[in-house]
Write a structure and sequence with these properties.
With 199 residues, the protein is mostly beta strands. The chain has a single domain, classed as Pnp Oxidase, Chain A (Roll), CATH 2.30.110. 13% of the residues lie in helices and 37% in strands. The strands form 3 sheets. A 5-stranded antiparallel beta sheet has the order 1-6-7-10-11, with no helix packed on it. Strands 2-5-9-8 form a 4-stranded antiparallel beta sheet. It has a two-stranded antiparallel ribbon with strand order 3-4. A hairpin with a 4-residue loop joins β10 and β11. α1 packs antiparallel against α2. It starts with 17 loop residues before the first strand and ends in an 8-residue tail after the last strand.
């Protein structure tokens, strides 16, 4: 029988110890209420031969994709707080190329590069038990694992519904579509699901 649980140094990762950072939305670091983590699924291709079935690995997909991040819906408040959750997310779509009305000769549509640049890198940081904010921002020592969504772009925005019978905090769920995810463990080991020479 393993004695791993008798070691005081063993520290399971905890659901509430995390941060989500967006390069394109620097003020959103502390707004995440819930967040998915990337997973991988290998499709199965069946080959039937007489009365038998044989299985072979097929295409690889990342799940969930899009990935859901639920944010607290905050409002602008004088000079002390100058961001609004919905407005900031809509601005990301505008930078991606979303345009309803255009001047003559200024027609634009959403493109992948613009959409990826507008949102910026999306990182999901699972923190250690003794992590301070400064350690997370400046060093990697307080991070148990980091997921970096590659080529991520904002796919949808869904504001919470209103209800006279509820006093819950309003939220906005954003969905991020991505090509793949890169995992960096707490010791700095990078796991790439692609050729090491690719970026």
């Amino acid at each position: 029988m393993s004695l791993i649980w008798t070691q005081a140094s063993l520290e399971p990762k905890r659901k509430f110890r995390y941060l989500v950072t967006f390069n394109g939305l620097p003020d959103f670091q502390f707004l995440a209420q819930t967040c998915d983590r990337p997973g991988v699924k290998v499709a199965n291709t069946e080959h039937k031969y007489f009365d038998k079935t044989y299985n072979h690995p097929g295409r690889i997909t990342w799940e969930p994709n899009p990935l859901n991040i639920k944010l607290v819906d905050i409002q602008k408040k004088g000079n002390n707080l100058s961001i609004d959750t919905n407005e900031s997310l809509l601005n990301v779509l505008a930078k991606s190329g979303l345009q309803y009305f255009a001047a003559d000769g200024d027609f634009r549509t959403i493109g992948k590069q613009a959409a990826v640049n507008a949102l910026g890198d999306v990182s999901i940081l699972v923190l250690n038990s003794l992590t301070s904010t400064n350690e997370v921002i400046v060093e990697n020592g307080g991070v148990a694992e980091q997921w970096l969504l590659k080529n991520g772009w904002l796919e949808s925005i869904k504001p919470d519904g209103l209800d006279y019978a509820s006093d819950d905090i309003l939220t906005v769920t954003m969905q991020v579509r991505y090509d793949w995810a890169q995992l960096t463990s707490g010791d700095g080991t990078v796991t790439l699901p692609i050729n090491q020479t690719q970026s």
